[in-house]
Amino acid sequence: MFWTIIFAILFFSLIIFVHEFGHFITARIFKVKVHEFAIGMGPKLFSWGKGETKYSIRAIPMGGFCSMEGEDSDSDDEGSFSRKPKYARAIILAAGAAMNIVLGFLICTAYVGVYYGGTGVPTAVVETTVEDSSVSEFLEPGDRIVKLNGQKINIKKDIDFAMQDISGGECEITFERAGEKVTKKFKPYEAKYADGTPAYLVGITVKTEKANVFNVVKEAFFQTLWMGKLVYVSLGMMLRGQVGMNEISGPVGVVGMMSESAKSGGINGLLNLLFLGSFISVNIGLMNLLPIPALDGGRIFFVIVEAIRRKPIPPEKEGIVHAIGMILLVGLMLFATWNDIMRLITGG
């Protein structure tokens, strides 16, 4: 557990560094004055740098910031963030989340390369059909699945994702054969999970391709998109009340998941950590783009409002909104951490 905690701290520090570096490098590109680029929060442990920008490592290895001139207040400085064009401010604000998504993609590429290196990369092309399945009546080996229940199919995981909420009703599948697309209705094939609960599947196996640079990168790209869909579907479930507040997890819970992922040890433990790390990075990037005060998405929302109104929102009023948002986010984080602690105590 000790080494898992160390790994988690280093991993989150990497996510924070990459996020803030996205803001930093785009701020430099648009000639915004950066006062401080910091990793961590709280008191400074180390700082260096001369001139315009100071760099620092702070005591609490969670969080970080890229302090820009005029970010939260009005400034007449030429290098002020507030004086830059709206498109430039939006790019600077979105760059942190974009870098997290890119990091998630790079980690996913490593995961896919190792995981499928020996077995081959699965495709969305039919290899066989289950003998008594509904699709066996019309699907043939070599058919490429292109759409399932209205969802576009790029990789095998998309097929699983499109079937995850099916409970036995009629489904629709579109496949490509000899350059032509065909759409059919079918009844899901019912299998059983290990615990006896029903699992509704298409009823096919898919072909694999020998791993190479191109299909590994392609698979990683679409797995990253799949993770993004999973993040927003999970968020939607939470907003609709399908996921209870007691299921929300914080940093302690993430460390627990990392510990569980690493338990198998060896290459399997590494693969589990890579996949989880990729998902966390993509998750953080996408959540940061939500139009919630204090998050980058909330700040981008104010830039969009400014563009619609054709006049800036007073910085002090925007600052108050973001301050309230930050208080609420900290409260949510404390609540999630309390959930994690209670799960540890009760073993749930």
Task: Describe the structure in your own words.
The protein has helices at 2-29, 86-115, 156-163, 213-239, 251-262, 266-288, 296-309, 315-346, and strands at 34-48, 54-68, 121-129, 144-148, 151-152, 171-177, 180-186, 189-192, 198-201, 204-209. The two termini are 18 Å apart. Helix 2 runs antiparallel to helix 6. It has eight helices and ten strands. 50% of the residues lie in helices and 21% in strands. By secondary structure, the chain is α+β, with helices and mostly antiparallel strands. Strands 5-4-6-7 form a four-stranded antiparallel β-sheet, with helices on one face. The protein has a two-stranded antiparallel sheet with strand order 1-2. Strand 6 and strand 7 (180-186) form a beta hairpin.
Report the radius of gyration as a whole number of Å.
24 Å
Query: Between the first and last Cα atoms, what is the distance in angstroms?
Result: 18 Å
N to C succession of SSEs: HEEHEEEHEEEEEHHHHH
Look at the helices and sheets and give the structural class: alpha+beta
Overall mean pLDDT stands at 85
Return residue spans where pLDDT drops below 50 for at least 5 consecutive residues: none
**How are strands sequenced across the largest beta sheet?**
5-4-6-7
Number of strands: 10
| Major beta-sheet overview | 4 strands, antiparallel
Shape: elongated
**How much helix, percentage-wise, in residues?**
40-55%
Please, how many helices? Answer: 8
Strand content: 15-25%
For the structure shown, list the relevant keywords.
348 residues, alpha+beta, 4-stranded antiparallel beta sheet, two-stranded antiparallel ribbon, 21% strand
